[in-house]
Every structure is written in structure tokens, then in C-alpha cells.
Design a protein that fits this description.
With 414 residues, the protein is mostly helical. Helix content is 74%, strand content 0%.
Length: 414
């Protein structure tokens, strides 16, 4: 039996996500102390490097989304990988704050290793419909496995060669993983090679288009629905809270006396549970409403922060990432599915180009805001972390109220 080519697309995106974990998007918390000590930078200032990364990612999505809809990612991913490698090498050799911030911005503009990255999630939505959740979970598991591998590799390299050479080595890994294989294997949509989503059988000469997959909304139509803006606001809040916790939990725990080995293990547990939860979400995605999976994921991450703040012991640090990684893994699948499920796949890249800058704006603001709260709260992370928990509870409520949009013509007949 011939394997549907969509699974080749999924395998390629899995490999891209895995190797691009070397950009330290997931493990940047491990770099905070060594970079800060070497460069003489406060945590609030280092937080702005990640803000630049995420803000640039949001802005670049305005162009990347429509480009994916039109051309696919066969060329875009290798370009992104090459730029990422150059940025990592430049950061590794620079001591200028502004150069480092600009290079982190370039990393963000070409971001590959984040849950919901347009470059690695939109293609899945275009190649699958009925099996979309399962395919998205397999592709997203590359993020988990890459995070697991590089949690240990980055900590090992940081301890042995320092943060500069760690980033230089990572640049080589990114270049190898994101250029040759995507160029060889990626294609835009199944219709381009005479197939239909999910590998459905049809005559090879049939004239099928993306528009045959209802419902299909344009970006302009989607922007007129409350559902789009509820989802966008909720995920901006989620990213604000989880992004802040991801960056500041390592120094918080280190100051509480936890060893670097235990903290690195937390990142590894995050990654393992991320992958398992993502695969589970792929199984349940066709059985449970995607928005309720989102509510479960957000709630789990709120619980993780509560445990991570109030139970700073080895058992607490091992339980916290179970909830955090679990929520992140489910959300990675949700982000790859929910937009296409609500608004169709024809213009999903363009629709996500509209929402992504706002959503990532939360990620960009979270780390520096919590860093500033730390500075004005007698060097305590507690107020910021409790605020993040409350915000996540609000985001879960918003998502729960975001119903499927009505048919466009019926909803706007007047």
C-alpha cells in the first residue's frame, strides 16, 4: 500500500522542528545566568532579547502567512534555517547588547522551533482534514524530542565550553537540519501533485482545489467574527504568562538552591511530557472539541505555575513540568488545528498572519514585565508568577466561550 505523501511532509516538519531546537527557543532559561554574568546584563534586559525574538516573529508572520498560502514552505524553511544559523553565530561572537538584540530579532523572524510556528504547522493543516489532529501531533512531537535532546546537550555544553561556543555549535546543527531535506521533500498542497487531503482516492486528472474543503473563510471574513478575536486574545494572554514562567523559572529555582542538574532535568521532563501529551491530543482531537482541549491545556499550565512557585523541592520541580509540558504539548496540537477547523484551510496561513503578531506580543511582553516586577518587588518573582496564574485562568474562560463561527453568508447577510 502506497504511503500518502502528506506523511512525508509530516516527517520532514518533525525533523525540522527537532533540529531547530538548537536555536535555544525552548532552553533559553539555561542561558540566562551564564549570559547575564558574562555580559553584565540584568534579567530584565535579557528578557528584552526574547521580546525582540518574539516581536520579530509576530511581524514577520504578516508576510510569511500569505507566502505559505501561495508558495508553500519548500524554500521558506531553508531560508529561515540559514538566517537562524547566521544569527546564532553572530550572537556567539558579540558582546554588544544591541547586536545581540538585533540577532535575536532575526532568530524570531525565522522562528521554527515554537509550538504553532507558521512554517511548521500551516503545511500540516493544508495536507490533512479528518486526520489533522493526528498529523499535527506527530509533527509537533519534533519540538518535544528536540527540546529533550537539547535540554541536556545545551546544559552539557554550557558547563564545558560556555554559552558562546554552545551557540556556535548549535548554528551548525540548525543549518544541517533545515536546509537540504526540506528542499528535497516539501511540497505546497496535495492538489499540486494530484492528491487530496488525507490521501483520499480520486482520479488523478480531477480538477480539485482548496476551495472544495468547506467551510473556507478569507482573512477579511474571519476578522469579522468574535471567535477569531476571542481565540487571539486568549492565546496572547497564555503566551504572556507561560513565556514569563519559562524564562524566569530557572533563575527562580536556582536562587532557591536547586542545582543546575535538577533544573536541566525539569526542561527534559517538560519535553518528554510535551511529546506524550501532544500525541495524546492527536488521538483525542477527533473525539473532543478542540476548544475544550485548549481549556484543559491552559488549566494544566496554570497548575504548573502554582506548583513551581509554592513547592520548590525536587519532587515539586519534577511535578511542575508534567503539567507545564502537558499543557504545552496539547496547545501545540491545538494551534495546528483550531484555526483551520474554525475557518477552513484555504487561507489559514493568511488568517494566522493576522493573529500571530498579537499572540506573540504576549510572549514578547511576558519575560520583561515579570523581570521588572522582580526588580520592584524586592527581587521576588512571587507577585509576577501569581499574576501569571490568574491571567491563565481568565484565558481558559475566554477560550471556553469562543464558539464555532456561523456560516459567513448567513452571519453577514445584512
Amino acid at each position: 500500500m502506497r504511503v500518502y505523501y502528506g506523511w512525508v511532509i509530516v516527517a520532514t516538519l518533525f525533523f525540522v522542528s527537532l533540529t531547530s531546537a538548537a536555536t535555544a527557543g525552548f532552553t533559553f532559561g539555561l542561558f540566562v545566568l551564564p549570559m547575564g554574568n558574562d555580559l553584565g546584563l540584568s534579567r530584565a534586559v535579557l528578557g528584552w532579547t526574547q521580546s525582540a525574538r518574539l516581536a520579530a516573529n509576530g511581524l514577520s508572520s504578516l508576510a510569511i502567512g500569505p507566502l505559505i498560502d501561495r508558495y508553500g514552505t519548500r524554500i521558506l524553511i531553508p531560508i529561515a534555517g540559514g538566517i537562524s544559523a547566521i544569527a546564532l553565530l553572530t550572537i556567539s561572537r558579540s558582546s554588544s547588547l544591541w547586536i545581540i538584540i538585533v540577532m535575536f530579532g532575526l532568530l524570531g523572524a525565522t522562528e521554527l522551533h515554537v509550538p504553532g510556528s507558521l512554517l511548521t504547522s500551516v503545511p500540516v493543516a493544508k495536507w490533512f482534514t479528518q486526520k489533522r489532529a493526528k498529523a499535527a501531533s506527530f509533527a509537533a512531537s519534533g519540538i518535544a524530542i528536540g527540546g529533550l535532546i537539547f535540554a541536556f546537550i545545551h546544559q552539557l555544553l554550557l558547563d564545558s565550553v560556555g554559552w558562546r561556543d554552545t551557540l556556535a555549535i548549535s548554528a551548525i546543527v540548525v543549518l544541517i537540519g533545515t536546509v537540504p531535506i526540506p528542499l528535497l521533500l516539501l511540497r505546497r498542497v496535495p492538489e499540486d501533485i494530484g492528491l487530496l487531503p488525507d490521501g483520499a482516492a480520486h482520479p488523478s486528472s480531477a480538477n480539485n482545489t482548496l476551495d472544495s474543503d468547506p467551510p473556507s473563510w478569507t482573512a477579511r471574513q474571519a476578522m469579522r467574527t468574535s471567535s477569531l478575536w476571542k481565540l487571539t486574545a486568549a492565546y496572547a494572554i497564555v503566551n504572556f504568562s507561560t513565556g514569563a514562567f519559562m524564562m524566569h523559572r530557572a533563575p527562580y529555582w536556582a536562587e532557591a538552591g536547586m542545582s543546575t542538574g535538577i533544573i536541566a532535568t525539569v526542561f527534559a521532563v517538560d519535553a518528554v511530557v510535551f511529546g506524550l501529551a501532544g500525541l495524546s491530543a492527536g488521538f483525542f482531537g477527533g473525539r473532543i472539541s478542540i476548544k475544550y482541549l485548549a481549556v484543559i491545556a491552559i488549566t494544566a499550565q496554570a497548575i504548573s505555575i502554582v506548583i513551581g512557585v509554592s513547592w520548590v523541592t525536587v519532587p515539586g520541580l519534577l511535578i511542575s513540568p508534567i503539567f507545564f509540558g502537558g499543557g504545552a504539548g496539547i496547545n501545540a496540537v491545538v494551534q495546528g488545528v483550531i484555526w483551520a477547523e474554525y475557518f477552513g484551510r484555504s487561507s489559514v496561513g493568511t488568517i494566522r498572519a493576522v493573529t500571530t503578531p498579537i499572540i506573540l506580543g504576549g510572549f514578547a511582553l511576558g519575560p520583561p514585565v515579570i523581570g521588572m516586577l522582580y526588580a520592584v518587588s524586592n527581587e521576588s518573582y512571587i507577585p509576577g508568577f501569581w499574576a501569571a496564574t490568574a491571567l491563565l485562568a481568565g484565558a481558559a474562560i475566554i477560550v471556553a466561550t469562543a464558539g464555532y463561527p456561523q456560516d459567513y453568508k448567513r452571519a453577514h447577510k445584512n
